[in-house]
Amino acid sequence: MERLFEKQNRLLRFTSLKLVRSLMNDINWDAPLLAIRGARGVGKTTLMLQYIKKHYGMNTNEALYCDLGGLYFTTHNLLELADAFYKNGGKHLFLDEVHKYPTWSIEIKEIYDSYPDMRVVFSGSSLLQLLNGDADLSRRCVPYTMQGLSFREFLMLYYDIKVAPGKIDELLANADDICVTINQMCRPLQYFREYLKHGYYPFYMRNDQDYDVVVENVVNYIIEIELTQLCGVNVENLRKIKSLLSVIASSQPFEVNISNLSATTGLQRNTVINYLIHLQHARLLNLMYSDLVNMKRMQKPDKIYLGNTNLLHVLSLGDVVVGTERETFVANQLGYQHKVEYPLSNGDFHVDDKYRFEVGGRSKSFAQIANMPDSYILADDIEMPVGNKLPIWLVGFLY
Predict the structure, then answer these.
(1) Hey, which bits of 319-374 come out as E strands?
(2) pLDDT tens-digit series, residues 229-239
(3) So where are the chain's domains?
(4) For 189-212, what is each residue's pLDDT tens digit?
(5) Are the C-beta atoms of 1 and 85 separated by less than 8 Å?
(6) Is the dihedral of CA 305, 307, 310, 313 positive or negative?
(7) What fold characterizes domain 2-146?
(8) For residue 135, what pLDDT is reported?
(9) What residues are paired with 121 via a beta bridge?
(10) Which residues contact 162 (CB under 8 A, 6 or more apart)?
(11) Which of 17, 54, 241, 320 is deepest in the core (most CB within 10 A)?
């Protein structure tokens, strides 16, 4: 265990508190057991280390961060570690990458039951059914989902431009005042272009080529390791899955024809649908449905986007289609905290059963959503609202 504390101190020294994600304040860290699930690369490890550094400081014996995929756990047992940690004054145990430890759910349940005054935080892949492992943790655990950087968080991390997040009704009602404030602080369109290419994952170091390589490595890891180990995907189909992603990335906003996708990839129809769902759980795709209540309609999605615009730029076989880029951004930013559906008519997105959004350039007209209540255009290339035509980047300030 001493080696784990040494490693933790080493990691804490290099953990910056410059950007603390808004999720930090949303999490109930006092819960006896909580789970943080998210796609690879979005910052789950950093969030846990930041909490330890902020609330416990360096050289603490009350909090302990452990990577369950590390070499330590090839020869040591998690239950034994938890017992030793508790008996030496431990209060808060942080377990990262739990999906790499075969009996994680059983042992975490045992820790929860045996040490009721010790808090446990664990994280894992967005593909992992954290609450449906070998032990039922659903009645014990408080789950959270972590997303990549919003446009707002990107501005805060890389340019020290600090704007508080807003609720969707606040942004829509006060769009003029909010946009005036933001435009006084920066030229948002300038930074928006950068965000669309390199701003979603929190490891951009102003080197475009290296960033793209790291994002591609994240995609390859998810497909080659996580899909095979956690979803049972046939290794022989991995190249076809990558081909499927490239087809979607290189297309107009993708209205789904499963038969065409099946023919293009050489996969059976039901296999294509299953893989699309796996890729959505992995946050590589964003599947849109016209009816989220009627389960029969959910057998196939009505529209497909890449999970975020950075993936779009890395995976596209040619120049990114601007319409695809715009809609991918909106679907990603709205979809994190809101119910988003694909309307079969009148607009591009139906949000929370109330708002209707049409996405386009600065000259986009209201023809498709004319006379509809709570309808808005999210327009590119504008800095200020014009009536119900709002800058598209404004939805990047929701979290």
Answers:
(1) 340-341, 349-351, 355-360
(2) 889 999 999 99
(3) 2-146, 151-397
(4) 999 999 999 999 998 776 778 999
(5) yes
(6) negative
(7) Rossmann fold (3.40.50)
(8) 63
(9) 34, 94
(10) 155, 156
(11) 241
